[in-house]
Design brief:
Number of strands: 11
Largest sheet: 5 strands, mixed
Strand order of the largest sheet: 1-2-4-3-7
Helix content: 40-55%
Radius of gyration: 22 Å
Order of helices and strands: HHHEEEEHEEHEHHEEEHHE
Number of helices: 9
Structural class: alpha/beta
């Protein structure tokens, strides 16, 4: 009996080894097979791709969650919460030049929004209230939340598409280390700025989808400034260290950022992207405020 069990085990190992050698899937094929998106996310993804690729040379030369058939670039989006996925691409979005593919786990997008309470809103109230009394929060309506998903995905996928257009090496949007690191004077840093430049060129803040996109970027920048000034308070709550008002919030104190890693913090990336757009299109008061806000930034030694 023992010999029989051993023989079966050896046969299983041999067959498994042969399968892995001859039929092993690459990551793209694997994710196309096991990855899933719900209907809401699929609609957001399709709308986003149509927007960021419109007017580009690849508007009709890309594949979305399908095997490429001569297309120049492939976008593979999946939600790792919907199926058991074992891949280094889980919880990140990135461009892989060797395969001309951009992968994105939309779980990363939802986590980014939730961490900043951008999946919530303030419950309307009547009358006066003490300034230090926290607002009551509630989940955003599905349509409004999907708009937040769309704008954020436009920035993320547009950035990765910018890497593709510029011929850069592999890059990633991911929760670590991008959330806390910046390196100000490296080639990698220059690549990040160049990738974002595509977005500044594609979205005209005065026409089409541009106004809403930049309105969202300014809102996101304000959220990041709030998180720096009052890290223990929801960005939807009052922060006494911020001079809140119309346009871009100004910190009431110095804001520090770190100088470790190869990617800039989100706050720095947003300021630079808005600056690119200001130089190209003239954002008037918003551009002026954006240029002034950097006077509060200091590299943390």
């Amino acid at each position: 009996m023992n010999r029989y069990v051993v023989a079966l085990f050896a046969a299983a190992v041999f067959i498994g080894g042969c399968y892995s050698f001859f039929f092993q899937e690459d990551d793209a094929t694997y994710l196309l097979r096991v990855g899933k998106l719900d209907k809401r996310w699929e609609a957001v993804a399709r709308n986003t791709l149509e927007e960021i690729l419109s007017s580009s040379p690849y508007a009709n030369k890309y594949a979305f969650n399908a095997k490429p058939e001569g297309e120049a670039i492939t976008f593979i989006l999946f939600d790792s919460r919907l199926s058991d996925i074992s891949s280094p691409k889980v919880n990140s979005c990135g461009f892989y030049p060797a395969t001309r593919k951009i992968f994105c786990d939309v779980r990363f997008i939802d986590a980014f929004l939730a961490e900043r309470d951008m999946d919530k809103e303030i419950v309307p109230f009547e009358g006066n209230r003490p300034i230090d009394e926290p607002f009551e929060l509630r989940p955003l309506a599905a349509e409004q939340y999907d708009l937040n998903r769309t704008f954020l995905l436009q920035w993320v996928l547009g950035h990765e598409f910018g890497h593709f257009l510029a011929g850069h090496k592999a890059s990633h949007f991911a929760p670590t280390p991008l959330d806390a690191r910046v390196e100000a004077k490296t080639i990698s840093q220059a690549d990040e700025i160049e990738a974002d430049a595509y977005l500044a060129s594609h979205f005209n803040p005065h026409t089409g989808a541009g106004p809403e996109f930049y309105k969202y970027l300014v809102h996101l920048l304000n959220v990041e400034v709030h998180r720096k000034a009052c890290p223990d308070i929801s960005p939807l709550q009052y922060c006494k260290k911020i001079q809140a008002g119309a346009g871009i919030f100004s910190p009431a104190d110095i804001v520090y950022f770190k100088t470790v890693g190869t990617h800039p913090e989100y706050m720095i990336r947003l300021v630079r992207l808005i600056k690119e757009a200001h130089q190209k299109y003239d954002l008037n008061f918003i551009g002026y405020l954006n240029d002034r806000i950097v006077e509060y930034f200091r590299e943390q030694s």
